[in-house]
Specification:
445 residues; two-stranded antiparallel sheet; alpha+beta; 68% helix; five-stranded mixed beta sheet
């Protein structure tokens, strides 16, 4: 029984808890990847960051001569591009999110022009955080980026010494704390090199992560800046909400005036004529009565369409999940809907999500020349609260630009009222993926 247990618990004397070859290969691959990424970051840190720091200091110093007013916005733009590239690498290589803290700049053709842009840049605290980060990146960032490759290279050096180089350097060379004096010390060099390579396999990814933690600590927005950004965004979305509500009220008023109201007025005039003709010309009165009945039916249809545009009945009665499925069924292109929602959400949230989905699906069918569309609607709990996530993907021609057209801008305004976000990925040739997120909680929770 004990023998069986021993055979079951180990293979050829190796415990099951020991990492197998796939795990070892994975560690080696991660260590080498971290070393390669570290070398790339070394170039960015020591080369680009240091050059941009020198250029920024000189440009700001030359403001007193007037030249800096023209060079500072351009140099600061390059610094922000460099910082944003590091933010992108932090997300892609280490899974660390570093949000950009920059304030909006006045357009180049605004009143004040270059002077106004330069003044706004210098008043932005994010500009000075970037400027402080550049020399720190050139020193601390360079060191943390260099260590992964340096550990591997120094470990390999121990094996190189053991391979025979010790004969040429003995009595004149130290490898770390080991004096190279003969074959025995060369063997110790190989042992230390193996330990360094094993250490690199374990800690190299953490050095790269530490590099990006320095980035996050220095150029991510402070709590005060985050609150200021949030207040500014809420201020803008409140005005957008007021403007969109006013525009919606004008549309409803115009539709009522030009549609149902005109038909009701016409029907009233027809009834007055019928009242005068009912005894003199019953046949004509009967014909006008039939026409008035048609006008009343058309007015009722227009009123129903108008109300449906304000708040669709399926949304009010059955919730966002069924309303999204109904939208998918009504589309001209096949839509594969994957909707997983439990319960209802606040009516304004459901309405914003419904019309956002409708707009994106319509764009996919009308502009993308898509043959198929996928709709995913899910709700999940996060550390910060609940999140309604909507993704619409199509296999169309791609190349969608959110800055062109009013449809995406309207969706951003709708979502912005709830602090929601819109992201569009649409490379030329497709596919296009539109992702929307709305912070919310189910009703009744």
């Amino acid at each position: 029984m004990n023998q069986g247990a021993t055979a079951e618990g180990s293979v050829a004397g190796v415990p099951r808890t020991a990492p197998g070859p796939p795990a070892l290969r994975g560690r080696v691959r991660d260590a080498l990847t971290a070393a390669a990424r570290g070398l790339a970051l070394c170039v960015l840190s020591l080369g680009v960051s240091l050059a941009l720091f020198i250029a920024s200091v000189l440009s700001i110093a030359f403001i007193v001569l007037g030249v800096g007013l023209f060079t500072t916005p351009a140099v600061t733009h390059l610094v922000r591009m460099h910082a944003n590239q590091r933010r992108q690498l932090a997300r892609d290589w280490a899974g660390i999110t570093v949000r950009p803290p920059y304030r909006a700049l006045p357009p180049a053709d605004s009143v004040g022009g270059t002077v106004a842009r330069c003044t706004k840049l210098l008043r932005d605290p994010a500009t000075w955080r970037d400027l402080a980060w550049l020399p720190a990146d050139a020193v601390l960032g360079f060191v943390t980026a260099l260590l992964p490759a340096a550990l591997i290279a120094y470990g390999v050096e121990g094996f190189v010494i053991f391979a025979g180089v010790w004969r040429a350097v003995q009595h004149n060379y130290w490898y770390a704390f080991i004096p190279v004096e003969g074959f025995g010390t060369a063997t110790l060099c190989a042992g230390l090199g193996a330990l360094l390579i094993a250490l690199a396999a374990s800690v190299n990814p953490y050095f790269v992560k530490g590099h990006f933690l320095i980035v996050k600590g220095m150029i991510s927005p402070s709590r005060g800046a985050q609150l200021a950004q949030r207040v500014e965004r809420l201020y803008e979305t409140r005005h957008d909400a007021v403007d969109s509500s006013a525009a919606e009220l004008r549309r409803i008023e115009r539709d009522l005036h030009d549609g149902a109201q005109a038909r009701l007025v016409s029907m009233g005039m027809s009834l007055g004529t019928i009242e005068a003709l009912v005894e003199k010309d019953p046949a004509q009165a009967k014909k006008l009565l039939a026409q008035a009945r048609e006008n009343s039916a058309e007015a009722l249809t227009e009123l129903r369409d108008l109300v449906r545009g304000i708040h669709p009945p399926v949304l009010a009665e059955r919730g966002l999940g069924d309303a999204a499925r109904a939208l998918a069924l009504r589309m001209q292109v096949p839509v594969e809907a994957d909707v997983e929602l439990e319960g209802r959400f606040a009516e304004p949230v459901e309405s914003a999500a419904y019309f956002a989905i409708s707009e994106v699906l319509t764009n996919a069918a009308k502009h993308a020349q898509a043959g198929r569309v996928w709709l995913d609607v899910h709700y999940s709990e996060t550390a910060a609260g609940g999140m309604l996530r909507i993704a619409v993907t199509d296999d169309g021609r791609g190349g969608a630009d959110p800055r062109k057209g009013s449809g995406m801008a309207g969706i951003e305004r709708r979502l912005g009222q709830f602090d929601g976000i819109l992201a569009v990925s649409s490379p030329p040739g497709g596919p296009t993926m539109v992702t929307m997120e709305i912070p919310c909680d189910p009703v009744g929770r």
